[in-house]
Amino acid sequence: MSIKYNEKNYPYIDLGRGYIIYLQDDDYTEQRWIVKAEQELNETPENKARSLEQLRELLRGENKLTVPLDDEKFLLKFLRPLAYDVQKAFDCIRHTFAMKRSYGKDYYEGRIKPSHIRHIYDSGMVNFLPLRDDDGCGICVTQLGRKWNTSKVSMYDVVALFRINIEASLMDPLVQVNGIRIIFDFDGLSMSHVAQASPKHAMVSLQWIQKCCPLQLKSIHIVNNSMLFNVLFTIFKPFISKELRDKMHFHNRDFSSLTKCISPKCLPPMYGGTLDAPECEGQLLGDYMQLYDKHYEITGDERTSAKENMAKKTLHKPAGILDTSEPDPGRKGGKGG
């Protein structure tokens, strides 16, 4: 298990047994995704070009925003998931920076990029599964019980983890089209974990997900949830919209119900699936995510206006999501089946 580079010099994690994890950067070329994007997201070359220019025009009128207007991939991560609704994409970006202004000191300062929270990756709390679901959705597992050492990982860190992982997800064109599924595993949840939560943490994290994030969050799956989880959920429940609540599924230890929502071939045996891929080592995932720090630095500072940023023509290599696409035909994975 190690970090390697494909023919385009993009890094990926070789898990062994033919499975890989890597950050998708290229746009999709398979006809089924092109057709799906057109039918479900109104994506055509003409609409894409028109929407990009309209969004740029709105952003040029905003001062105090560091937005790379010349970076088409950055703008598309807001436009495509929102079916090219320019006003919604614009509002999403404005809400993002408003959140930074309101909660920057506590929730953003020192927690902008993967290297700032690599102790979370090192702990093994996060696992990106190496196969997409049948409909093309990416799948991420976060363990918020036994592997969460509250003496080393604060709730502020956990909130940052959600944001940083989702920001990475949004750079993946296939996730922009197909969305993502998240599994929260609460095995080993204790009072020390519950004590970390507060209404403010709940409000900030859910406000970001529901107002700032254009990601198509297809479903959230709660597993190994005990009675103690109900205490924790009570803190978060008042801030959860009906739309988000409808996407939540509570399985406890009934993994047969989980495999009705996510294909068993994508899930490891511990969740009732048949996936035989080795679990990614936490420190290796930390090393890998840290390679993409530069992407997060681009939008981590509001001191430059959009107009000034356009003049500077900021260049950076954008990240994508942890993808399961194959860098060569001999590897397992694929783009969702």
From TrEMBL:
Single GO molecular function: phosphatidylinositol bisphosphate binding
SUPFAM superfamilies, sorted: CRAL/TRIO domain (SSF52087), CRAL/TRIO N-terminal domain (SSF46938)
Ranges for domain CRAL-TRIO: 113-279
PROSITE patterns (UniProt xref): CRAL_TRIO
One GO CC annotation: membrane
Top-level taxon in the UniProt lineage: Eukaryota
Region (Disordered): 303-337
InterPro entries assigned: CRAL-TRIO_dom (IPR001251), CRAL-TRIO_dom_sf (IPR036865), CRAL/TRIO_N_dom (IPR011074), CRAL/TRIO_N_dom_sf (IPR036273)
Protein name: CRAL-TRIO domain-containing protein
Species per Swiss-Prot/TrEMBL record: Anopheles culicifacies
